[in-house]
């Protein structure tokens, strides 16, 4: 069996890599020399190439039987992921574990947005193509999204544009990766759509309280309105307009949905409770905050 892992340094992919680095039947698709370096030692094979390059994709999928399929939000996300998935299928793959996202319920007054829309497009194409074993992971917002803001959290602020009233089942990407790996390796995968969340729906205010309790320092949530200043801030950091529009659509949907339902995927696939925000804060946020405080 050969397994191909895409985005092996990604927020989820790095933990998929962690679990599979000692196997010799795993191939990792990385774009750059820096990406290969970041991967560290692996027993399997590293294939260098851009997922948007059909020739590189053909090299990556040759002889592959199972695929972990993920891609960041990008203008060409649906095309790249579909290309990877269909190429793997042509090469004889029979199982795809695709990283998607929790869909928004229409009843909540949400509207189609480009971020979750890309997943709908990819999944529809894979289904049409008749992937024999297709697992679609549908996680809620990642706890790991806050790590780049560790310095702000150290200074006492958790800023977020997702809306003060939006309670979500923030999920630790280590759990998503464990579910993905279980689905990749199982003789008989659970398959289908697997909704994944943390153990409780938290507003960002409550999330800040959970962090504060573990860190032993004040952390207060600050709402970031989806206004012209927010757009200008992203543009100033070089985020292109299509991406700003996509993020606007996503955050506006979080605000419209309010309290999101929880997903039972961790329990269903792994037979245990999902990690909590406190677990994440103790294991990963606290060291990042300590590093920020020490100026590292
Ligand atoms: N963040 C959330 O809260 C959330 C919630 C639910 C679902 N999701 C979904 O999660 C997915 C992203 O997963 P993730 O966060 O694990 O990934 P990620 O961290 O965004 O993935 C980044 C990795 O992708 C690689 N990459 C980017 N473009 C590439 C290309 N053209 N060819 C080869 N490699 C490329 C990058 O390689 P380099 O190092 O070379 O740049 C980098 O290592 C998205 O589809 C999103 O919708 C996210």
Describe the protein's topology.
Blueprint: E1 3-5, H1 13-20, E2 26-30, H2 33-39, E3 45-48, H3 54-61, E4 66-69, H4 77-90, E5 95-99, H5 114-129, E6 133-139, H6 150-154, E7 157-160, H7 173-185, E8 192-196, H8 204-215, E9 220-223, H9 228-236, H10 241-257, H11 265-270, H12 277-293
Parallel strand pairs: 1-2, 1-4, 2-3, 4-5, 5-6, 6-8, 7-9
Helix pairs in contact: 1-7, 3-4, 4-5, 8-12
Bound molecules: NADP nicotinamide-adenine-dinucleotide phosphate (NAP).
NADP nicotinamide-adenine-dinucleotide phosphate (NAP) binds next to loops.
What does this protein structure show overall?
- By secondary structure, the chain is α/β, with parallel strands linked by helices.
- The protein has a domain at 3-143 and 171-198 and 261-275: Rossmann fold, CATH 3.40.50.
- 45% of the residues lie in helices and 14% in strands.
- Helix 1 (13-20) packs across helix 7 (173-185), helix 4 packs parallel to helix 5 (114-129) and helix 8 (204-215) crosses helix 12.
- It starts with a strand and ends with a helix.
- The site of NADP nicotinamide-adenine-dinucleotide phosphate has 23 residues, from loops.
């Amino acid at each position: 069996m050969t397994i191909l892992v895409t985005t092996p340094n990604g927020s989820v992919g790095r933990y998929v890599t962690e679990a599979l680095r000692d196997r010799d039947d795993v191939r990792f698709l990385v774009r750059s020399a820096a990406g290969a370096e970041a991967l560290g030692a692996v027993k399997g094979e590293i294939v260098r190439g851009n997922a948007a390059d059909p020739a590189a994709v053909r090299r990556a999928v040759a002889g592959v039987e199972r695929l972990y399929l993920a891609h960041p939000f990008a203008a060409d996300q649906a095309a790249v992921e579909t290309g990877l998935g269909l190429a793997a299928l042509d090469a004889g793959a029979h199982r795809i574990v695709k990283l998607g996202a929790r869909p928004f319920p229409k009843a909540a007054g949400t509207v189609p947005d480009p971020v979750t829309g890309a997943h709908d497009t990819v999944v529809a194409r894979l289904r049409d193509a008749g992937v024999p074993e297709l697992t679609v992971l549908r996680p809620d917002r990642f706890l790991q999204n806050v790590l780049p803001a560790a310095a702000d959290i150290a200074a006492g602020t958790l800023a977020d544009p997702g809306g003060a009233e939006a309670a979500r089942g923030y999920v630790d990407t280590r759990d998503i990766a464990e579910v993905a790996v279980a689905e990749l390796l199982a003789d008989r995968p659970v398959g289908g759509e697997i909704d994944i969340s943390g153990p409780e729906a938290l507003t960002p205010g409550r999330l800040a309280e959970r962090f504060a309790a573990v860190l032993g320092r004040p952390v207060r949530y600050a709402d970031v309105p989806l206004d012209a200043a927010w757009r200008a801030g992203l543009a100033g950091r070089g985020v292109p307009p299509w991406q700003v529009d996509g993020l606007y659509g996503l955050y506006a949907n979080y605000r419209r949905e309010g309290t999101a339902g929880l997903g039972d995927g961790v329990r269903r696939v792994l037979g245990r409770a999902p990690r909590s925000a406190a677990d994440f804060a103790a294991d990963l946020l606290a060291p990042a905050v300590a590093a920020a405080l020490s100026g590292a």
